Structures are given as C-alpha cells and as structure tokens.
Amino acid sequence: MHSTDWLQFALFIGLLALITKPLGIYLTQVLDVNGKTWLDPAIGPLERLTYALMGLDRRKEQDWKQYTLAMLLFSLVGIVFTYLILRYQHLLPLNPQNLPGLSDHLAFNTAVSFTTNTNWQSYGGESTMSYFSQMVGLTIHNFTSAAVGISIAAALVRGIARASATTLGNFWVDLVRTTYYLLLPICFVFALFLVSQGIVQNFKSYDTAKLVEPQAVQVAKMDASNQPLVDAAGKPVMEDKIVSEQTIVQGPMASQIAIKMLGTNGGGYVNANAAHPFENPTPLSNFVQMLSIFAIGSALTYYLGRMVKNQGHGWAVWAAMMLLFVGGVLVCAHFEAAGNPIHQALGVATADGNMEGKEVRFGIFNSSLFATITTAASCGAVNSMHDSFTAIGGLVPLFMIEMGEVVIGGVGAGLYGMLVFVVLAVFIAGLMVGRTPEYLGKKIQAYDVKMAMLSLLVLCMSILGFTAWACVSDWGLAGLNNAGPHGFSEILYAYSSATGNNGSAFAGLTANPANGDPHYNVTLGLAMLIGRFLMIVPIMALAGSLVKKKVSPPSAGTFPVSGATFTLLLIGTVVLIGALNFLPALALGPIVEHFLTAGGKLF
Amino acid sequence: MKALFSEIRGAVVSTLVFAVVLCGFYPVAVWGVSQLAFKHKADGSLIVDKDGTVRGSSLLGQAFTGEKYFHSRPSAAGVNGYDGASSSGSNLGPTSQKLNDAIKDRIAAYRSVEGLNDKDAVPADAVTASGSGLDPHISVKNAELQAGRIAKARNLSVEKVKELIAASTSKPDLGILGDASVNVLELNLALDAAK
Asked: What is the pTM assigned to this prediction?
C-alpha cells in the first residue's frame, strides 16, 4: 500500500467513527414513535397521512408474532407488485427503448432479489429494464427493504432493552418513520451530490454519439433467421464492419444510486454497477458512496448502546466489526497490489498490481477497499469485477459474506446478525466459566441459543446445499465463465451472495442463460428467500423470548459485554463459526487456486 | 381474521403510498433540482461539436486504435468493446487460459506499436480490460509511453504532447482520493484541435 492509500483508509475510518454518534442519536429519535426530529414540520403531515390511509393506530404495539406477520405480509405484497411490473413493463409507461417484459423466472428472481435487500441481478440493467421498472418496480424496494431491515434490528434491540414485557414496537410505524425521516431526506441530498459529480438524472431516451475514430471490426455474419453463419469447417463466418456510433445510456440514475448505497441494496442501474463511470464518476463519488454503505449500519451500534443504556457495549460491538474489517481490507489490498505472477511473467509491470476488471480512476486500493466494504455490509454494489480478483483477493469478499455480513453489515441486518453472535459469545463465555450465561442481566437459556443457532445453520445449509447441487448438474456447469477451481468459486460465490442477501457476484456466471433454463434464477431466488426470512423469523422469536425475561442486577460473576475481552471473544466467535462452516468449501475454490496461480497452472 | 385483514390493508396501502412518494415525488424532485443546478452533468456530460453532433461523453471511454491517437484500455463491453449499451468486465479469473492468451497478445502488440524492447514491462492498465469496459482513463505512465508515437505521427514535439497529457490528467480528488488518470477521449480531442 502507498502512503496515500493509508491516508485514505484512515480518513475513511475516522469519518465513519465521527458520524456514528450523531447518526445514532438521530436513529433513537426516528425509531421512537413519540420521537422528535427537526424534520417534523416538513414530514409530520406526510407521516400522519400515510397512517390515516393505512387505517393504522400508531400507538398500538405488536408482540413478536404480530410484528413478524406484518413484515412478511408487507414483503409478500412487495414481491407481487414488482413481479407484475417486470412481467408487463412493455405495457407500462416510461419505456423509451421499447424493452420487452421479463420471463417469469427472471421476474421472480428479480422481485425476490430486491424485496430481500439482495439486489442480485441476473440481467444487465441497461438492456433489460425500462425507466418505469427501474424507478418504481426496483427503487421502491431499495427504500423499503432497507427500512424493513432497520425495523427488525430495532425490534430485536427493544427485545434486549425492555424487561418483563411482551411487545416489540409496531412494524408499520418503524417502517414508515425509517423511510420518511431517515432514508428519504439523506438520499435527496446525496443524490444531488452524485449528480454534481457526473451521475445522470433525466428521462430522455439513450443518446447516440458519433465516434471520434470509427473502428473497423470483424463480426460474425448472421443468416436470415439471425443465427451465426458457419462455414464448411464449422467455424463462424466473419465479415468486416465499421463501428461508428456509441450508445450513451441515460435515465433517472442518481436518485436510484443514492438509495442503492445508503440502503445497502447494491443493485446497479447498469450492468457494470459502480464500476460504470455514470454510476461512479470520480474518486470523490466513490469515497462518499463507500461511506454511505457503512453509515447507517455503524450508527445502529450506537443506537444499540443507547437503548440498552450501556454505550460501552455499543462501541465494543463496533470495535469488533472494525477490527474484522481492517483485517479484510489489508489482506485484499495486499494481494491485489501484489498482482498475478502469471501475467507478470508475460511482461505486465509488477508495480501496477492486478488491474484486470478495475478502473484506472479508482486503482488497486479503492477497488480492494470497496470490495471489502460492499461484502462486509450486505450491499453488493461493485466498483471492480470480483471475478477477476486474485485468488486470495477474491476470497476476502467471499468470506466476508460467509461470516454472515456482520462486519457493519446490511442496514439493520448487520446488527441483528451480529447480535446473534453476541448471544453465542455470551453463551460460550458462560460455558467456559460454568455459569448460566447472562446478556445484559438476562439469562440466556436453551430456547434462545436454539433460535440463534437456527438462524445461522439455515444460511450454511442454503449456501452449501445449493452449491453442491449446482456443481453436479449440467445447468450449474453450463453457466460458468471460468474452468477449474475458479469455476467452483463462481458457484459458491453466487449462493453465498444470494443467501447472504449481498447481491455482488463473480459475475462471469450466467444465471439467466439464453436458452431460458430457469434453474439458477429459481434456486438463487429461493436462497435469497431463505437467507432473508428463515433468518429473521428465529431472530424475532429470540427477541420475543428476550423481551419477557427479568433483569437481574449485575454481580461479581457477570460477564461484561463491553471492553477488550468481550470484543476479542466476539471476533473469535464470528471467525470460528465462519471458518468451521466454510473452510472446506473455500479450500476447494480460492485457496487451491492461490497455489495453482503460484505454480503457473492455467485452465 | 379482522386483524389479518387490517394488516393486509396496511401492506397494500403502504406499498402504494410508498410508490407515489419514493418512486414519483423523490426522483422527480432530484431531477428538477439537478436539471436546474447541474444540467450538463445530469444529461450525461455530453461532448457536442459545433454543428450539434454528439461526439461522446467525457465520462465514457471510446475505442482508439489509429497511430495518431492515444489508445484506450482493452474493453470487454459488448462483442467489439466500448459498447455503451452493454457495460461489462471480462470476468476472467487469475488462472484463465483465455485471459492469459489475451494479455500475452496485447503485450506483444503494445511493445511493437510503442517501440518497446522485449524485456520492457508494460503498464498493467494497457493490457487488461476494465471493470465497466467503458473506462475513460489510462494511467499517466501508459500515456507517456504512447507520447513518442503520437508526436511522430502528428509532427508535434514530444514536449507539446506531454503538455496536452498533463492538461487531460485528473489529480486525485482532495489530493489523496483515487489515482491520477488521463482522460483518453478529451486528450485525443485536444490533439485534433492542436494541429
């Protein structure tokens, strides 16, 4: 790493630490039904109108089952809403490119993907989605799936903070307030900043540029039915062609990209996502986008500390996240800067590192940093192609996802995922000293540990189960862009990303093949549903159990959940469980590939 | 049952209200303000020549292969590269034979076109495809290695070409963010204007 890389890294962590407290305090106001914010005069009427239309009594709280049911119903309506828009986008307005409706399995995959905050994309946006589909069918979930995540985290925190109670808040109130008071105002300002950097925001059709230097190229000749012609030897017939134009994609991008980052959604407007100069034009836009991915997740740790009246606990959780994050960045950046020895033997400058799939304006460090952030959080936007990373450089984002995306994590999802590990860490500490484990004065009992483990095992089962199925199936192998262990990594990454609700990819994998095979779209869609809802339900059950418990006063034998001992125990728990679950699979993919790269083996 | 019905009503109504606020008001408000404040950028930073023809966007790379122009990076966007309607990287991994062969060919071509020796290291960005396939930039080192060829083909002094490179170079934002980069399209347009 160069000295400027260290400076950028320090600046990033410093700014993140600085915004954690004020944004955390703001969250306590937003997530309190009677909370006062400075935006009340502007947004209060809209909030009350929304409740009135919904016929909602905002003071009525829900127990864990009612809260979960409301969340599930809302998500179901969202999936159907987007599915219908995507299927019938050719009949809807704002489709200047006259793009056709999506196939049933692609529409299913995409509707699930955006509802679950995953934003896995089996398609290229600029050639598939109308402006209406982007702006309405997809953007609505960028807001609401983020708000759902934050609401669930708030419910779990209330379950920890309250004692001898039954209710966890009201889902609808949390959803509406998070969307209106937190996400919408920040996104409005953020989107305008992004336009100032060069991201487009318009409703005109695509422009066509006349190239400065027209290019002579050879293309495959097509027959009358638009199939490539082949000669007697079976080789495609080529013809000369002059390319003299370039399509320039347009549309309402900035408004979508602001929430895509802030809400850790990650779904790109265009295929190349945040590597595309229109989605991420400058190093400054890149830096602010990275900060926005972590902003809310980081602030939620402060919210946790504030709500349980133990700010040291909030910071201890934050510190555990940051240490894991710094480790990931340093490993990833080291291997990307070291580059690929096979290519360097051919004559590529060793000092330049691995530039395949990276943009010059970001360079090695900002690409590695972005890759680690986007997978530590469950964002999944990419500013470089993870598929082309070195073996270990690509292992870091993959393992970040497989640890459960608890390093800051997705908005809300990161905190409730990490709190599961906190419960387990406390449980393990209790076992080690032979006492009934307690978390903030509440006894952790068999039911709580079962629910915590269930939410983790479901993820492991989905990732490894689907990966194994795809590896031994023709449809699974047909989608690969790389052979050898890297091909395995593409499949493993896909199901890790889908189950973890991340959405980034080793993007060489073709999940929506031209022959219409639905297997990837359907299995990835199921993995996303499992990773979202089969994780949330046990966590809500845990919240429902915790909220009923009595608090016993701290004694000399109480295990403190702040300070360095707790932070290290938490890190150990996260890494150990991640490694136990996934090390064998990783050994077959990136780890063996690392040694093969060193030996110069090609596939 | 009544409770369930009221929850379903909440789900449907909130979805519709959100659709209006988040998918209607919000993007239109961003559009309105940005069209007033940053019209050029909101419309794609288009480069338009005197007779009104769009020649490109200063943010998007174009392919250049002639000896009088600075060459862009290899591109995996579309079949022929630099296809603005299908941005993409190659997505080839570190042990890919296909990637290895492509880089080998590009290194040989680069050395021959720019007059380098067989042992000279070639800048990584010159022989690898970018993430988007539309990378508008090349590294400063890569531009400088091409300067001699351009100067000869255009009968310009190498100093003059290097001046133009410097004028098209973006320094890191705030002095530390990102890497210095040379905008190829802007540089080539400046070359055409300088003759």
From this structure: 0.96
